[in-house]
Amino acid sequence: MAPLCPSRGEWTQDGDPGDEAQPFGLDAAREEGVYDPAMNSDQISDNDYWIAPVQTAVHGTVRTEGSKSVAQRVLFNAVLATGDSEVMGVPGNEDLDSFITALRDLGCEIVGSAPGSLHIRGTGARLPSGDRNLDLGQNGTGMRFILALAALRDGETSIKGPSHRPILPLIDALCDLGCQVQCLEDRGGSSVRIRGGTVTGNKVAVKAAVSSQFTSALMLLAPHLPQGLHIRLVGPISSRPYIDLTAAVLRAFGVTVRFIGREIIVEGGSELRSGRIRVEPDASAAAFPLCAAAITSGDVTVEGVGSKSLQGDRVIGEILAEMGCPVEVGEESIRVNGPPVQAISRAMDSNPDLVPAISVVSAFARGESVFSGVSHLRFKECDRLEVLCRGLNSVGIRAEVGADLLRVVGSDGTDLIGGDLDPQGDHRMAMAFSLLALRIPGTRVLKPGCVAKSDPLFFDRLEGLIQEREIS
């Protein structure tokens, strides 16, 4: 197979898969005595919070777990490939757990558990028939991908997912292709029923403004249609790098994908190859320790994410450099020192997951930073724009959102006041608020266990970088 993750290895039919990543996180943190067992996600209570030591800086080297964005795309293809596949570096988190459970409930044979390696018995795109009931929990990406997968199988599939994540544009596109899809709640909702095996079309238009995942789901479905699929993107295109990521994963499985302007052509009718693959580390998660280094005048290197990464959020180094931080970007690493020294204006429609972290960094860079292309952040695990601005304002940072713009006024941070920050159950918001806690004494992140959705070891990893410093 062709390389999928150039920074981490190649698909092979045999041979050594390569060295495993060095241990980090929970076990390492416990050995160092910095991990509070009460922070386990399965022990979180309403009274739990996370607070950083007073006057902290972050220093060191870390490696994030595998990207769940990459992992879900790889697993989708692996279960439909011809032959067995081994997927290494699969992260362990709530989203991946629900996605893997749904694949197994559909009759896919997956041996192993995350985090770690999974052995997948490919079905050759012939999924077992029969009616199924699936629950994707809060995994919006997984619900959209599984809905597309269910279009291939005979039988009725009922899928339950997060009620706040839009899905109607994907349902409309599948109906245009001849699928029988019924939304079981008014105006979308979290429950969908689809009767598969009825796809007849090979051309479809999809609204691309709210989420790139509608497009990615159709692309993943396309190789298994006799004539493939010709997808036309309608309206503004959000998170375009995730569409490119989907194309890269499909090509690794032997699928031909072409882009012509606003159109995507995915060839169909051929078998997907199988083999070995390692999921590259998560670039979105890597942003937070790097931003922590920026705002605390620290020095952090994240390994496994660099110029060769397939993920669009690898541009975190470029953004921090634009803000005046010393940055070194290698093929498989990013190193950042602080502090940020200047405000920026930047379109973020391609990298929405970076907005929470970068907005916190901009709060400590003098001047007004303006981020455009942010409106679709209202449709994540929470309304991230509202929750983010409320949190920033509560500690004394001037931030406001209007239309498609987010404005943050930076300062030296001396007049900021600590407070309790509620991430509203959103993993990315808890991570962003943890950055504020590093800089503002007395700031607490409430209910931090929500990070288990994507990165249960987030606070372990952050604590492992924290060094108390003397106040001069």
Question: Could you explain how this protein is built, in words?
Answer:
The protein has 472 residues and is α/β, with parallel strands linked by helices. It has two domains: 26-65 and 281-468, UDP-n-acetylglucosamine1-carboxyvinyl-transferase, Chain (Alpha-beta prism), CATH 3.65.10.10; 68-278, UDP-n-acetylglucosamine1-carboxyvinyl-transferase, Chain, CATH 3.65.10. It is 28% helix and 24% strand. It is built from 13 helices and 24 strands. The strands form six sheets. It has a five-stranded mixed beta sheet with strand order 16-17-15-2-24. A four-stranded mixed beta sheet has the order 4-5-3-14, with helices on one face. Strands 6-7-9-8 form a four-stranded mixed beta sheet, covered by helices on one side. Helix 2 (68-80) runs parallel beside helix 7, helix 6 packs parallel to helix 7 and helix 10 packs parallel to helix 12 (427-439).
